[in-house]
Amino acid sequence: MITIFGAGLGPSTGIGFQLVNGQVPTSLGGTQVMVNGQPAPLLYSSFGQVNLILPYSLAVGTKPTIEVVSNGTRLNTLSSSTVQAADITIFQTNGAAAALNQDGTVNSPKNPAQPGTTVVLFGTGGGQTSPPSVEGDVTPPGLRPLVITPKVVVLGNPESGSTPLPYLNVQYAGAAPTLLSGVTQINTTLPDTIPAVYGYPAGTLPLAAVNEPSGSLSNIVTISVASQ
Predict the structure, then answer these.
(1) How far is CA 208 from CA 12, 48, 88, 205, 215, in A?
(2) Least CB-packed of 30, 124, 137, 228 within 10 Å?
(3) Per-residue pLDDT reduced to its tens digit, 177-223
(4) Are strands 99-100 and 96-97 parallel, antiparallel or unpaired?
């Protein structure tokens, strides 16, 4: 899922998508986005912003052409971005991850995760799944793991200065069941002893996804954890 910013992209009043026959539409408020000449599913359209889902068929290493068409008028073409196998972005608000605790409740400072439990992170950019997912579909119930499994790491400097911060055990990384195709879900287990991280207050743990095979990091997000 990506966002394009500009001017004259769509209607003055933004329009969000509604499923049509169980799929995300490729036209919204008079706007289309052509990716290599094919219309992409649109999530949101407004004068200054368009949100869309890129096709899974894009070849790694290529530079696809992306073109907004507004009420039949073709705008400038974007063609400088290179396709990567995976480039995860974790959904967040003001730096706090959009995460669920092991019991299915929303993670927050008033509802922190317990040490040793599993938390669920959500994001996008995980790449293709097995079996394959289709852009614009709703992911059916069941497991669709990513073809390339990311790692999750506690990020920062340990307060002790000696103990390395851990990689966490990833229980599942794949399409998020019942959500739109393109939403990545990562279930990861917290350590039994929550490390203290320099610059972050007690009860806050900074995490990032590590994209394989490049080793590049996602954005850094925090989750709330119970004090020990």
Answers:
(1) 36, 30, 9, 10, 11
(2) 228
(3) 999 999 999 999 999 999 888 889 999 999 999 988 888 899 999 99
(4) unpaired
Q: Cα separation of 117 and 105, whole Å?
A: 13
- With beta carbons less than 8 A apart as the criterion, state whether 33 and 46 touch: no
Return the biggest CA–CA distance within the chain: 60
- Which of 48, 78, 108 lies at the terminal end of a domain, its last residue? 78
Give the residue carrying structure tokens 């073709």.
Answer: 74
Instruction: Point out the domain boundary residue: 43, 59, 78.
Output: 78
110 and 186 within one domain: yes
Same-domain check for residues 97 and 169:
yes
CA 164 – CA 13 distance, rounded (Å): 49
Statement to judge: residues 142 and 207 lie in one domain = yes
- What pLDDT shows up at residue 198? 86
User: Domain of 13?
Assistant: 2-78
- Residues 130 and 187 grouped into a single domain: yes
Contact 115, 226 (CB under 8 A): yes
Question: What SS3 class is residue 17?
Answer: coil
Burial of 137 (0-12, 13-18, 19+ CB in 10 A): middle
User: Phi, psi at residue 83, to the nearest 5°?
Assistant: -75, 130
Could you tell me if 110 and 185 lie in one domain?
A: yes
